[in-house]
Amino acid sequence: MRDPQEEKERLLMPPMDTLSRVNHYGFGGRKKIDARFRALVAGGGTGDSLVWLAEQLRDCGGQVTYLEPSSASSKVARARAEARGLTNITYVNATIGEFAATVPEKFDYINCAGVLHHLEVPEQGLHDLVSVLANDGCIGTMLYGEHGRLAVTEWRKMVAPLLPGKTLDEQLAMTRSLLSMLPEGNMLLKMGGGPGFIKGLLENDPEIVDLLLHPVECAYDVHGVYDFAASAGLDVAAFTGFFGFGGTGKAHYSIENHVADPKILRDLTALPLRDQQAFCERYSCAMPLHAFYLTRSDAKRAAGTTTMPDRDLCPWFFVAPSDGFFDDMLTNAGKPIILADGTGNAVDLTGGPDLARLLALFDGKTSFGDISARLRDEILHKQPIDMNQIADNTLAAVWALFHKFDWMLASSSESGWQQQDGQRRLSVNLPK
């Protein structure tokens, strides 16, 4: 439910479609986003991704194509874009298959979130998207998660025998009645966090229909996501966020965020990455959806790796440090501190003046290679061992710490796209 008039007061920024993040994970930080950049929102609904992408591309001249078969949704999306004065949009009223059959010009980035799992044959929808994707392009998509959505799956099984022969209004009335008298042990209550979730649901008929009454849907576990991507010759470049102010969903797929036992952690890290991520999904049971970037299997995407990116790339603060960040780092050198972004993401560490000096080099202009050399010569120069390896290892550890919640990203100096997260600020706090 979206009111176009609200566009005058706020801008919704779906994390998956933030182009700094798309460039980092989808293009290895090397994509020049300018007037030649073309984005497709496939199944654009009422326009969240459409508006955010068009707003980001407004000044550089990039174009967005909005693809949506629903005239009701299209009317809302168009009104929202018009309220913001966005003119870099082409509107197409068609399905993904119909649009792909027109053989349009290829797109650099395709958003298709919450759509493919509602198709009769999701794999065909993905193949159609690939057919309109540029050779070096990236797809940002979201699919329902099998384990985190178990409550919904079981609900759908429960009511399935009651739906035939009923109109949508009758199905909705029945569902509202069942929701209003849920037993305390019902899984939907647990999935949503309690009665407040059900109360909100009962105030939003479209949400009830979307969540519980959609006629076609399927869900995927982590392995299913990888297999789904491979069916179209694609790789999972990275999991990312879908809800929330930082889009930090990728942290849910890291085993060190779930397991503290060193022996178990050692055994898990020996597994292939997808097996580690599958463990996280089952262990947490808190992933009702999977949001991720897809790239062609033969594409090189160095910036999104778990290790330090290519040495020619330049790291930079995607989440801007607060005004007193570096002074606070120096003031509290040698003391336990907590770095936080204001949205619940935080890391504990003991900083020092050398760390503050190092972080000041993450300016988006200085490459990893140059930073490593300065770290070796100016900060670690007194160590009587292999300084090149020590500098690289130290830099990789700092990068991993700040990349954990996308506080830092990396890009080439030529890409010219380093727009910061407008919703978070990085600050230094003391333990209570």
Automatic annotation (TrEMBL):
Superkingdom of origin organism: Bacteria
Entries under CDD domains matching the protein: AdoMet_MTases (cd02440)
Family matches, as InterPro entries: Methyltransf_12, SAM-dependent_MTases_sf
Domain Methyltransferase type: 42-139
Matches recorded under Gene3D superfamilies: Vaccinia Virus protein VP39
Protein name from the UniProt record: Methyltransferase type 12 domain-containing protein
